[in-house]
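Posting for a labmate who doesn't have an account.
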Amino acid sequence: MKGILLLLVLFISPATFAQFTNESEVGIAAANGNTKTQTYTFKQLNDYKWETNVLSFKGRYLNAKANGLETARYIMGGLRYEKIVSSRLSFFIGETLEKDKFVNIDKRLIFDLGGKYSFIDTEMSKWFAELGYRYMHEDRLDDTSAFSNYGRVYSEWEQKWNTSFSTKYWAEYLPNITENKDWQFNTEFSLSAMLNSTFSMKSGILVRYDHFPAPGILNKTDTLFSTALVAKF
């Protein structure tokens, strides 16, 4: 499974790419005085589309400090290949790497395989769902490891209310196939207001829930409120 998508990149000439899209998101928050806090967030999304193929990259970084002490650090990067078979249906394969120091995860490798179906795809409204399989391998900071097999259900809805304001909501449910008490749920709701044809301001709340977290982790729910500048082209 490792390196599948890297091989695709090596064997496909960049000259064949018909379309490239970029979405970069940067958020910074700082408070000084009796309490000193700094929070930095960065998110990157890229799609290469040619004929009936889509190669996607995603990345995310979060770092937070309070009075000089680090309180959060999350790193994620992934590649995904999607094959479009009709105007509504496509199939995908993907691999993701995560690191999350404060939930005892030194390295988490995720392999995804599944299908995507688009219910609505217009200029103002988009709604699609994905159904698939996920294999997850965790190396933890306490020198233990875990291997898990999950089902995956994902849905995303985006609505443009006018030329300058839009909303997006997505939800993901991951039931463990072999361990009933282990399941995860992730969701995010966001609002975007365009500043011009390239830049917009985005505010959102991301919630990640792990019903059976790594040993030593007491809180099952992580939330992130963010405001960021987004560049799309």
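Reply:
Got it, the structure tokens are right above this. The two ends are 32 Å apart (CA to CA).
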